[in-house]
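Pair request: fold both.
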Amino acid sequence: MKSCERTNPWRQKGRFLLRYAYCGVRLPRIMLLAPLSKAGRAFLKDLSVLLGWPYPKPPAAIAKIPLDEVLPEGGACRILAPVAANGNISLLELLCIAGLVTRHRPKRLFEIGTFDGRTSLNLIANAPQDARLWTLDLPPQDVENTVYRLDEGEKAFVRKIQSGSRFLSDPHRDRIVQIYADSGQYDPGELAGTMDMVFVDGSHTYDYVLSDTRLALRLLGRSGVIIWHDYDSVWPDVTDALNGVYRDETRLNSLRSIEGTSLAFAVVSPEAPGRKTT
């Protein structure tokens, strides 16, 4: 028998009206007090975007390629933890990353920005059986002491309960190495020059995107693949920084963005030709 509580439309309407009245009372207080704190100002910024604020986006200077140039030929990708949480990449982006891993078969992978480990899990799941992944995350206790500025909206993702929670109980856990440090001052040591693929999805501020790109190039061997997230998205600093990287860094002349996503990637080779700039 169905519960009367679930099927009674008047009770449902009553609850909605109570919530509506509650929001009506609280919103003026939020609008009054939010500008007084950093967290409040970050909330207002996010709210303005949800309400349709015309967020200024720099023009994308990197050419787009179609999805069929990224997805594997004649091979299937593995997608683990397909349901996205707030802060995760989209399912289509996850499929593109899995496709790039399947195509290039990297044995040593590095990720800048672990978050909950959903992307980490799919990177290693699509790599060869003897592959290994190192994933770098900022410790929550260092969120106010970073070498470069963080966006206020990013700090909530740093202050999570557990970094890499998605892969901690997964069989692939044994092939993942977690590192806790500020990517802006991280020294890769013996890992430098040994990676086949690097995924950059740390802070979205301009200085961090440039710094993380330099770190990715340092980690990469003479050839390999670098993937970036949030290009041509609501994070204008990522677009600005990668536009500049594409213009100035000759090793990244193959940089392209992927149609229908906010991913960009470059296949780096030792013979990468230079580019004339004006």
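--- second member of the pair ---
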Amino acid sequence: MSAAASPLTATTTWTIDPVHSIAEFRVRHLMISNVRGHFTGVIGKLTFDPASLADSHVEASIDVATIDTRDPQRDTHLKSADFFEVEKFPTLTFSSSRVTRASGGSVVVSGPLTIHGVTREVEFTVEGPTPPVKDPWGNTRVGVSASTKIDRREFGLTFNAALETGGVMVGEEVAITLELEFVQGA
């Protein structure tokens, strides 16, 4: 177990540790259950000012080709022109334009999210950052959890199929959850 480092008191710069970070999503399938998947190719940077959240900033990029839904055939379909069109749009990107504290103490990070070449403003509800800790190799780390929901159609992800029993194959609302670990100054 790592010993805790000193609390965050000044503006610091952090890099996402892609080995310990993941972007997950959940979407309704056949109107009866949820399908989950994740992207492992998450990179980015955080500038954090605990005294002035407004001066904090985060940017992240996700390699769409790293999608994994535990079904290679579905992953190939999601990478195709029916969904992400990975050859034309290989990354998802986010860059915060505003960071504020919500009434319940959580942090709200707003900014443009680009998926499939379409950019829309989104708000992530964020827990964290955690108190910093030193890892066994002397690096200082913090973690955050962030979540939001989007309508995939607003990002040009419109593929669907009608079911003979009514409804559609793929839900429109997508829940996104990020579990990110940052390394200071990396």
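Observation on the second member. The mean pLDDT is 89.
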